[in-house]
Amino acid sequence: MQSRYTIWLIPIAILFALAAWLAWPSNNSINLDLGFTTFVRDISARLGLDLQGGLQILLEADLPADKTVESGAMEATIRIIESRINALGVSEPLIQQSGDRRVVVELPGLKNPEQAIALIRQTGLLEFVDAGSNFLPEGSSVKTDYVTGSNSLTGPAAAPTSAATATAGATATSAATANAGVTPPASATPSASPTPAPTPESPTFHTVMTGAALKTATVQSSQGRIVVAFTLTDEGKKVFGDHTSANVGRVLAIVLDKKVISSPRIESAITGGEGVIQGSFTTDEANSLALQLRYGSLPVPLKIAESRTIGPTLGQDSVRKSQIAGIIGLAVTALFMILYYRLPGVLAVIALLLYVTITFALFKIIPVTLTLPGIAGFVLSVGVAVDANILIFERMKEELRSGKKLITAVDEGFRRAWPSIRDSNISTLITCVILFWFGSQFGASIVKGFALTLALGVFVSLFTAITVTRTLLHSMLDNVDFSERHSWFGI
């Protein structure tokens, strides 16, 4: 019995040292040379919008109230917004659907709110561009002759001969019965950043037609390969048929917001208004491409329902006040435990310090984006950790008052308090799951942050309250005789 609990002190001490190193404020990265490889990981603390300042935008579908917004259209809208926001270089952005018609966008640490708003609101443009004989690399920027805002289905009625100087690449895939190997990017969602102004030497490509000509785009399987099949409108059918009939062998690039997302080659005339894009697609990549084809030009028009800018000074003040509140709460809790439970209280405080260290280390490793509600959940979980110790110590005192030996009273205190601790923590975790689901469904990120930090704190508190406190208590009792010193246990 004595040896078993003493041995447990070694892994607990190692765990505490590792957690303290990870949680140390100045430690923002892990850089380990393993010989055969180097492991590098950023573990800097992630602060949310309310702690470091930034921009919060609530976007709403700019449609009549009685018009239903399709879930697929909203999903595509969010993906396009995500790709545009990612181009801004904002760390830890949050783009989340709220209800059926709204999207919440949070951009922590943003320096230029006007640029972000302009980028989010711009109308995406899907174009089928004649690239001549040259393959256009995916993700590259191009200049086309289509005038943004034009109601025309195509660009100017000019011979598509200006695509001769683009950079050549690997062989493209077919737009009909293709047989080549363009490997789509890891994510078919393009990085739709504001396109830099092309240099005067850059070629101007002819827009054969825009995404307005597409009726449907779906993922299908053909001869064991995944393809993206599309159907055109009547007007698009004529335009596409005329172009493919006259330009077999030329590359017809698919461009979104002046960024190339695919460069299939025309293998045969497509006059039936239907075609397929073949390539080395995975199912996810094909779905993403089909989604872009269906909804290339921002499927749901959006308006800004609310915009809020939070200054970094306010965020820094919130961090400072949160730190003060956390220190005061921890100190008062520790003082109460020591004065009321004496020796077990001291050991519980040591376990509580280990709990705080491990939890914050996990926040940095996972990583968890800390917000004010998230910090509130963390502080609340400190109370949950102490609550478990209180149940154990009160039960232990009852056993001592009934005449049990000290070692027996300790074991009985942990054993009989466990059902209450288990049930109360399970009910807390169930509540956390419900809150997290609610936050995900309705775009309430502050609710999600609270639920996540509270749930994580509950799991860690179970370990520290049950395993660590019990190990410390038994290790102390196994080496010092407290059998006649019940006052040390609050009796």
Characterization of the model:
This protein has 491 residues and is α+β, with helices and mostly antiparallel strands. It has three domains: 220 residues, Multidrug efflux transporter AcrB transmembrane fold, CATH 1.20.1640; 76 residues, Alpha-Beta Plaits (2-Layer Sandwich), CATH 3.30.70; 177 residues, Gyrase A, domain 2 (2-Layer Sandwich), CATH 3.30.1360. Helices cover 47% and strands 19% of the residues. A five-stranded mixed sheet has the order 8-9-7-12-13. It starts with a helix and ends in a 12-residue tail after the last helix. About 8% of the residues have low confidence.
Brief synopsis:
This protein is an alpha+beta fold and 491 residues long. Helices cover 47% and strands 19% of the residues.
List keywords for this structure.
491 residues; alpha+beta; Multidrug efflux transporter AcrB transmembrane fold; Alpha-Beta Plaits; Gyrase A, domain 2; 5-stranded mixed sheet; 4-stranded antiparallel sheet; 11 helices; 16 strands; 19% strand; elongated
- The strand line-up of the biggest sheet is 8-9-7-12-13
Care to count the β-strands? Answer: 16
Q: Helical residue percent?
A: 40-55%
Tell me the fraction of residues in β-strands, as a range: 15-25%
Order of helices and strands: HEEEHEHEEHEEEEEHEEEHEHHEHHH
Shape: elongated
- Structure class: alpha+beta
CATH superfamily grouping of the largest domain: Multidrug efflux transporter AcrB transmembrane domain
CATH topology of the largest domain: Multidrug efflux transporter AcrB transmembrane fold
Domain module tally: 3
Q: Mind telling me the C-alpha Rg?
A: 31 Å
CATH architecture classification name of the largest domain: Up-down Bundle
What ranges have pLDDT less than 50 throughout 5 or more consecutive residues?
158-196
